[in-house]
Hints:
Helix content is 34%, strand content 11%. The chain is of the alpha+beta class. Strands 1-5-4 form a three-stranded antiparallel beta sheet. It has a three-stranded antiparallel beta sheet with strand order 6-8-7. A two-stranded antiparallel ribbon has the order 2-3.
Amino acid sequence: MASLSSSSLTPARPSPSTSTSPFHRPPPSTADGDTFPFPPSHSFPPFYTLQPTLLTRHAQLAKWCTLILRYHAHHRLHRLHLSTALSTPLFHNPTIRKRLSRSSVVEIVDYMVKAEKDGGAGQRAEWTNAAATGGGGGAGGGRGAEKRKEEAWIWWRRPEEWAEVLAGWVDRTGQKGTVLTFWELVHGEAVRGEEWAGMEEEVLARALGVLVKRGKAQVFGEEGQRGVKFF
């Protein structure tokens, strides 16, 4: 069986936390036939089996990370559900009859969760179940923890990066002192065509939380009726 070499998997390293993400793209086209452009590696059978050599494996994880981020940015997705994702074109290529295993996807997301200083991708993902991030020590810890890893946030923009984008919009459109509901920030006329239009409210809340900590916003109200004032 063909094998992967580290040179055949040149990883595109996720960028540091800045307001301009390498996975930014304009709003997706609504034209018929618009599809995500998969890289050549997606049609390379060995790409679907994580390699045992450490250097090659790390390069492979990095390449899968970049692919996952770009795929989610393209489709404006913020969550990865393992139960359904394994059957999507992202992890399944029927043309070559290859599918990434669940355990491999878990390992890739674990890599994305880690900070760069810990050998990871720079916190480009986050398991939604906090218990799933724990170690595998203790009786049954490893397998049990993996089973709990069912859903993850995919941060093609991290919350702090979204905060920078929102802050820029506030300055650009003169929204300081304005009170807006979360619904208006996601679905309103004023944000039509903006990169965050239509995003999940929980992602918006995380980004606004960063602005609150910086003294640039105040969030008020209960879930479902929340609003924000920008400073």
